Amino acid sequence: MRLTQRRSAPADQWAAPDSLAPERPLPPCEGGPGRGVGSASRVGAILLEIVGCFILVSACFTPTAAALAQAAMTPVPRTVIYPGEVILDDMLVDAPDDRIDARADSAARTRSLLVGKMARRTLLPGRAIPLAAVDNPRLVVIGTEVRLIYVEGGLRIVTSGAALQDGALGDTVKVRNSDSGVTVSGSVQPDGTVRIGGG
């Protein structure tokens, strides 16, 4: 009997076909789980950075109490206002407190305290106006003729006289009666007349 040696088949011959080979893991794609987690983290970091920048910018532009105080405005004359002139709104301009000579305890801070008032002394442009420098406008001027109205009960007498004092609304002034020469005192009325008597 002749013995023959059988050759073993090559290892490749017994290798499983590609269809039966175990699948290798695919690299994560842009829509895959691995890439999605990383993208979400990066997007979150970017959003946090944007929000932080927004908060920082908002803080820079939000006025603080000190900034608001510094930005306070005070009405000052636009041009020279002379004694006796009635102050009109267009005679004033608003100026920052830190650029004018203003004393908090004496300066008029709003236009409503000045418009319609009469200057008692010369008011210079750009200077704060002290409250003591203005007064109610004079309705009675010294040396001018005024109407005197005497009222007592149902009696009403109207005559004229010469004002011996300047007077604003509600002031008590002295007037010399033109007919009798007698000096009387009365209260200045809104229409510029002087009322004598309390009836």
List strands and helices in order, with pairings:
Elements: H1 33-61, H2 65-70, E1 73-77, E2 92-96, E3 118-119, E4 134-135, E5 138-140, E6 145-152, E7 155-163, E8 167-168, E9 172-177, E10 183-188, E11 194-196
Parallel strand pairs: 6-11
Antiparallel strand pairs: 1-2, 3-4, 5-8, 6-7, 7-9, 9-10, 10-11
Quick recap:
The chain is of the alpha+beta class. Helices cover 18% and strands 26% of the residues. The chain folds into 3 domains: 31 residues, no CATH class; 64 residues, Type Iii Antifreeze Protein Isoform Hplc 12, CATH 3.90.1210.10; 59 residues, SH3 type barrels, CATH 2.30.30.
Strand order of the largest sheet: 6-7-9-10-11
How would a crystallographer describe the biggest sheet? 5 strands, mixed, barrel
Radius of gyration: 47 Å
Q: Which outline best applies?
A: elongated
Q: Which architecture name of the largest domain does CATH use?
A: Alpha-Beta Complex
Helix content: 10-25%
What do we call the CATH homologous superfamily of the largest domain? Antifreeze-like/N-acetylneuraminic acid synthase C-terminal domain
Low-confidence stretches are: none
User: What is the domain tally?
Assistant: 3
| Class per helix and strand makeup | alpha+beta
Mean pLDDT: 78
Give the strand tally. Answer: 11
In DSSP terms, counting alpha (H) and pi (I) runs of 4 or more, how many helices? 2
List SSEs in N-to-C order. HHEEEEEEEEEEE
CATH class of the largest domain: Alpha Beta
Under CATH, the topology of the largest domain can be stated as Type Iii Antifreeze Protein Isoform Hplc 12
Tell me the β content.
Answer: 25-35%
